[in-house]
Amino acid sequence: MTYRVCFVCTGNICRSPMAESVFRARVVEAGLDGLVEVDSAGTGGWHEGDPADPRTVSVLEEHGYDSGHTARQFQPSWFARLDLVIALDSGHLKALRRLAPSPQDAAKVRLLRSYDPAAGDDLDVPDPYYGGRDGFEECLEMVEAAGAGLIAAVREQVEGQAA
Predict the structure, then answer these.
(1) What average pLDDT does the structure give for the chain?
(2) Where is the catalytic site (predicted)?
(3) N or C end of the chain: smaller count of CB under 10 Å?
């Protein structure tokens, strides 16, 4: 059975495609490819059909990640097929929980940085869109830092499904 994870930010051109790309690489490294499906979306549809922001693409490629992406908007009907919905900041978390058709679906929504024990109380990944390239680098660092905790949590769920 496939475990499905979707990363969600505002427009699906900066943070969530970056998280999707990094986590997809972690899934492969962990030997979970074929067992875990990874995608991303935005809370809004302003960029639907667009590629990732060129700064996102550049930072991903420089760090050895795949950057192929087409933006899309998150749909409430997706909750039925998703196991985990990862919000990039508290605004996305609230928006996604409001969209959830049931309390069980709302419980599927978690903040990405909640998987990073070093994150402390600040669990938001700041939106780099209106800033310079350094914001995209910072975003990548935060996404990577949460990766080990997230892959451990997903592995536990996947192994639990297999049992």
Answers:
(1) 97
(2) 9 (nucleophile), 15, 127 (proton donor)
(3) C
